[in-house]
């Protein structure tokens, strides 16, 4: 019963975006909504890592920018069709994330945060210094062909088309995260998160599942990065700076990572909060800082935690 | 070549005086201060403003004192009230503070880079076989050694030092033996913040001041602390020196990949020894 209710919820969620897009006049709001959807998928990946592994990454923006850079750098060489290139960039990013994961998931808690920050900044430094391939601080513009995945690229670069596409991708990602959490793998990683030593006593190996979760969260983030590159046809080191990782983390925490949809909510709220604040003042860094402190101290379960508590109160 | 090694020592000395504060705070309270780079940046900018009025030396002293006060405040207002919560909360709160500090610096001093004149006393040049080297850079190396020597004497011979060593060896046992972490922590965090501020002022004449300086040095000092072994001063000292050399030698031999080298080494060390070079020792 609860199961079919959830599926109904997902279907409704998937339908809401395209429907809403129909009524919102094309322009600024719709464009913002499209970008907010990328942010939400980004946050979903970071929240997934927090939920399944219990670790906080300060370097996930690297996986957001990496596939974009790969596509931008390899596109002019015309080695393969764009669709294959996209898939290869995603696979490459996930493979790299898995390799990094094998190392970083050995450390826990605070040290993990410091390590991921260091790795993310290392890639950022590489992107700014390796000018011949990455264009340095200026970034790179992509010359996309006319069609991709059978759709005209023009459609995907318009707010309306991209918002609908991104929203559907987002819903699919949410379903995947939800299914993973209910699968034996999901249960296993949650058990490891709670007590790795006991799970090892039960005879499971704990390194591979944790590294796999790390790679899966990188995949979600990479999908968000891919959509963003398709839409903007531009990539720059700003996308992988540590403040970008920090924003993603804030979205996930703001929304609350205890439930799968929390980070999505956090992503949208954060994105529009930042935009509204940016319209009135230049001090949005402080506003975000204060918001993060407030949420971390007063509502560690985020908005989702707050809403669930309200509902379950007698 | 000699010059390059000396330059590496200069950067290593700066890194150590910053990372030592991080290591002490971790040893005592098992926390990581994400705003440590911001403290360094605030120290540098405060020093810049004071130095334009009073000169370099008052700037160094006053800025370190101001940062000590800020550190004490940080301990009393953030670390102490949150010590029984998940350590990740302190991580997030100090991250928020770092964002606010960046905004404050941008608002007061703007986005342009500034630079601080070095003191006249140290403005000379030393003749070395084959080349010459600025006295000021040698003074920075001396500063780093002074910090290392001073801290190790303090930890070895003072009562506070004894408590810090006990707490970082085993917090529970130390507490059972009557070590009151709160009483020493105010002082330790203040000292760590003052060191960060002083490093900022000391670094200002050779590095330019910009709002991004906090993040740049924070990342390097994190690597120092993690590779050296969380909470270990000796480990941090050795790693800082090695990292300083790598940075400079890398710029000479492989400029494109220097930035990546420290990260590669960090990953290598952690595969080999997950607790770092000198894990769990002060």
- Major sheet characteristics of chain A: 2 strands, antiparallel
Overall SS class of chain B: mainly alpha
Tally of separate helices of chain B? 11
Beta strand % of chain B? under 5%
The unreliable regions of chain B are none
| Number of distinct beta strands of chain B | 2
Instruction: Give the end-to-end Cα distance of chain A, rounded to a whole number of Å.
Output: 23 Å
Can you describe this structure?
The complex is a heterodimer of chains A (314) and B (282). Chain A is mainly alpha-helical. Chain A has helices spanning 2-23, 28-53, 61-74, 82-104, 109-129, 131-134, 153-156, 159-182, 184-194, 196-201, 207-232, 242-255, 262-280, 284-298, 302-312; strands spanning 140-141, 147-148, 151-152, 234-235. In chain A, the strands form two sheets. Chain A has a two-stranded antiparallel ribbon with strand order 1-4. In chain A, strands 2-3 form a two-stranded antiparallel ribbon. The longest helix of chain A is centred in the N-terminal third of the chain and has 26 residues, at 28-53. Chain B has one domain (2-272): ABC transporter involved in vitamin B12 uptake, BtuC, CATH 1.10.3470. At the A-B interface, helix 4, helix 5, helix 12 and helix 14 of A face helix 4, helix 9 and helix 11 of B.
A few lines on this structure:
The complex is a heterodimer of chains A (314) and B (282). Chain A is mainly α and 314 residues long.
